[in-house]
Structures are given as C-alpha cells and as structure tokens.
Amino acid sequence: MSTETPDTAAEGTRNDEAPQDGSAATDADAPSRAELAARVDELEAQLAEVAAADSEKKMSIIATKGTLDMAYPPLILASTAAAFGYDVTVFHTFWGLDILHEERSKNLKLSSVGNPNMPVPNVVGALPGMDRVTTSMMEKKIDDNDTATIEELIETSLDMGVEFQACQMTIELMDYDEDDFYDGVTTGVGAATAIQDMADADIQLLV
After folding, report:
1. What is the DSSP string of 26-69?
2. Which of 28, 135, 173, 205 has a 20 to 30 Å separation from 199 between CA atoms?
C-alpha cells in the first residue's frame, strides 16, 4: 500500500520538473520586447538590401570604335538604359577610347569607304579629303535635326550615373594622359575588371 500523501506527491512532481543541473529557471535570460523588436528591424533591413541587390538591373557595353557614326550607339544605349533604371558601365578600348578623349571626341570622322549606306562610291570615297566631306555632311544632319552632340551625350550619361571606363592598356598604347578625358571618366580599368563586369551584367553589348 502506498503511504504517499498529496503533499509529498506534489513535492515529488516539483522536484522532477526542476532543472537537473541545479540551476534556477528565471526570465532574466530571455530577451526583452525592445531587443526582439530591434532584432526584427535589423533582419528586415538585411532582407531589403538583398532584395534591392537582386532586383538591380545591369548593362555592360564594350565600345571599340571611334568614328563619328559608331560613337553614337554606345552613348544612346547607355543613357537610355540609365533612364530605365539600369546600372550601366561602358568600357572603352582601342579607338573607342577617342569617344572619351575631350579633344579628339570633338573631331571624330565618318569614313566614306566601306560604308554601303553612304551615297558615295568607294572609288570616289577613296579620294583625298572625302572623309572630311562625308563628316561635314553628317555633322550638318546632326545640327539640322538638333541631335545631341557626343559631348552632350557624355555629360548627360554621366549625370544619369553611367560609368565610362577607359582601358588602361589602350591609354598607354596611345600615349594618352588621364587628364585628357572628360571629368568623371574612370581611368586605369583593365580587361579583367571589364570581364567581371560583363559576367555580372544582365545585358552585354559589344559595339
């Protein structure tokens, strides 16, 4: 027959529920509401940063040509993409570097040879001085249509956050000085940086 009384039974139950290591359970170790709220705010901020990074659209353009007609495509595409919220970089290498050269960009030429859309036969286009003629024709069209100049497109693109990169190898090859480029142009950029930028971009273009 059991001799356990209700009091001793309750005491046994309390002893069974007590921590085995002998420590007393208290609420002192539990975080406060303020601490929990701060932690939640921190996690929400981290999630917002990750979401923003994932939603950011990127475009990478490689500009390799420095004629008047080929200077416009990368600048138009870059400024338009920036207007649509893209993070845009344009890596200029070889003759494309002349687009960023403050002096040479104002004197880009339009070749009259090898361009089937020019109203000049190749045999005529090869004559001395014809490049100057076709360039003048294009400049007049640009002026008559109130089209933005190369300089204006560069300044507009820079204001919109486009990053223009000047190839370091080409700078050295052409014996250019970093001060020759427009203010805001990123100089000293190598091919490895350009490749990594293309790898991270949603859109990659070679012009």
Report:
1. -STTSPPHHHHHHHHHHHHHHHHHHHHHHH--EEEEEE---SHH
2. 173
22-63 per-position pLDDT tens digit: 555 556 677 788 887 888 888 888 877 766 655 689 999 999
14/16 Cα distance (integer angstroms): 5
Angle at 93 between CA 87 and CA 99, to 5 degrees: 80
CA distance 154 to 163: 10
pLDDT, tens digit, 9 for 90 and up, residues 101-136: 999 999 998 876 656 566 665 555 555 666 787 778
DSSP string, 172-188: HHTT--GGGBPTT-EEE
Question: Could you give the count of Cα atoms lying within 13 Å of 122 in the half-sphere of its Cβ?
Answer: 4
Q: Residues 66, 98: contact at Cβ < 8 Å? A: yes
* Beta strands, E only, the chain: 58-63, 87-92, 163-167, 186-189, 203-206
